[in-house]
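U., I forgot to send this yesterday:
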Amino acid sequence: MRAAAAGINVHHSTLQDRLTHAEHLLGWPLRTPQGRLRLQLALTMRRLARP
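Result:
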């Protein structure tokens, strides 16, 4: 978590809060391999659907 936060220049607790909020909005965990795959697929489908 700390390395990821440093990579995007935010405090690690800020990143943790943002992930928790995103998980709440999406309704699935982002911290599991299945959740990350689901997010990747959703973002890819969103990108492909754009004109």
